Give the backbone structure.
Amino acid sequence: MFEVLRERMEENAERIAIVSDGREYSYRMLADAVRAEEARLAAANIGPGHVVALIGEFSFAALACMLALFFRKATVVPLTREAHAKLGKYVEQLGVDFLIDTYAPPDTAIQPAGAPEAKPCQAGNEWRSILPSDTGGLIVFTSGSTGVPKAIVHNIDSLCYRYLDKKEPLSSICFLLFDHMGGINTVLFLLFRGGTAVNVAERQVDIVCQAVQKYRCQLLPTTPSFLSQLLMSRAYASYDLSSLQVVSYGTEVMSEAVLKKMNEVLPGCVFKQTYGLSETGVLQIKSRSNDTLWFKFIDAGVQSKVEDHILWIKTQSNLLGKVLFTEQGLKLEENSHEWFCTNDLVETDGEYLMILGRQTDIINVGGLKVYPSEVENCIHELPFIDDVFVKAKKHPMLGQIVVAYILQNGTLEKAEAERLIKRHCLARMEKFKVPSQFIFNWENFVNDRFKKVRSA
């Protein structure tokens, strides 16, 4: 697959490949930089079988280094600075061979980080037995929001079959992060089709909108939480976002009310849901319409089934295995099953699916299930609501109760706002789903991945 990418970079030599730090870099410049990085890696004897932690973002230097590592058939662990600070101890436990810091001067960027002579059969290194020998590898960490993170091991070649068809180039914001499966998907998707990746310094609404306006970006891959922030800021009125043809959203459940409002403020734009996991990569899906959350899989390499309302996936890009970090040391969990359980709860309508949320998101009120997204969608319908976040709170009698955090866009008194919200919810939902507690002191529930954190 990466030989195909090398050919595509040569074909698109004069096009802009990446915008980083205010500079535009052509595919010719990127191809030259990749070759230089390959030579530098070869001089350091980095190649097949080596695991390399790569610290960076979607800058020109980091992207060239990542591609060179894949061309050299090494296994890459991409990390932002922040992720490396949080996950460093797990990276060390993996026993990576080298660490490359793309923020450091070139002559000090490559540092030996492990024992290159370590063999797969040695204690703590058994997991290396699943590393691909004839292609590069990719390791991404799960978020660890429900506990200790896991290291997900992929064959990078098997993730790239979706990019082979030649299509019109697009320019896109690199919104999802350097160490996120969605971020890597965005960049590879762009490079294989000769598109332009626009790297932004921060994922703040004004900075992203300014980049869309300046570089006439056609694609914005983002999260529902960011789109909520975009609506609240009214930034769509301050910046020219007319170049946007597609806004893709994923990583968490979208609010139907937010989707409807986005269609109103960007009427010429296609809103496209995405679906993917660290374990599967990003899969190709098609929404039933521009303003609905129903979708179906159109990925030639994917099969799906639903059992007990849980979505299962079978795809040629399934992970090679997971590395678990236990008190007893590293534990390899190989991908021995063809079907992968996503733990996503879904509704079905013929061939279409709608994600209700993760099993871990369900609020259990006296044995009755409440989906936070359903309650949020209901409250979002009210005109004085700017944003709403619903989560569980422990309760001695019921197990859990529903709590709603409310951000208003008007001047209603809290008591009146609460009365109107309760009346609206009772008219549309069963009583046990109506929030028992309303909190009007808004908190930031969005993490550094621009996803809402719902842990009780």
In short: DSSP finds eleven helices and 28 strands in the chain. Confidence is low (pLDDT under 50) at residues 115-123.
